[in-house]
Write a structure and sequence with these properties.
It holds the Pfam family MarR_2. The protein has 6 helices and 3 strands, in the order H-H-E-H-H-E-E-H-H. The protein is globular, with a radius of gyration of 18 Å. The protein has 129 residues and is an alpha+beta fold. The protein has one domain: Orthogonal Bundle (Arc Repressor Mutant, subunit A), CATH 1.10.10.10. 19% of the residues are buried. Strands 1-3-2 form a 3-stranded antiparallel β-sheet. The N and C termini lie close together (12 Å). It is 58% helix and 13% strand.
Length: 129
């Protein structure tokens, strides 16, 4: 009886395919897939605090600060003090960052990634019947 690959293997395969598709665009600014996750989160929800971005992008908070610094240096991200709470920094994409995120999103949507939708994964109970 053959089982589908583990979730970890499937996620790894999707990430590898996505990296192959996006790396040429990421290389334009010397960025990684982690940077893209951060940009994608901020594109979807501008004005989030750094902790919220770290959680949503699945990036450790200490790593996020370093990545955000790089994105700010490249003119893709804007970091400001939250006017409602001056102890907190919020982030948004710059106009350049918005255009770049649009290009990455378009490339992501056309990337050839393995299809692991729920419909293609047999339920464990169906394997034993």
């Amino acid at each position: 009886m053959s089982h589908p690959p583990s979730l970890a293997v499937r996620v790894g395969r999707v990430e590898a395919a996505l990296r192959r598709a996006l790396q040429p665009l990421l290389d334009e600014h010397g960025l990684t897939l982690e940077h893209w996750r951060i940009l994608a989160v901020v594109a979807d929800a501008p004005g989030l605090g750094m902790g919220e971005v770290a959680t949503a992008a699945a990036v450790p908070a200490a790593t996020l600060t370093r990545h955000a610094d790089r994105l700010v240096e490249r003119g893709l991200l804007v970091r400001r003090v939250d006017p409602a709470d001056r102890r907190r920094a919020v982030v948004a994409l710059s106009p350049l960052g918005q255009a770049y995120a649009g290009r990455l999103l378009a490339a992501e949507r056309t990337a050839a990634v393995p299809d692991y939708s729920v419909a293609t994964i047999p339920l464990r109970s169906s394997l034993t019947s």
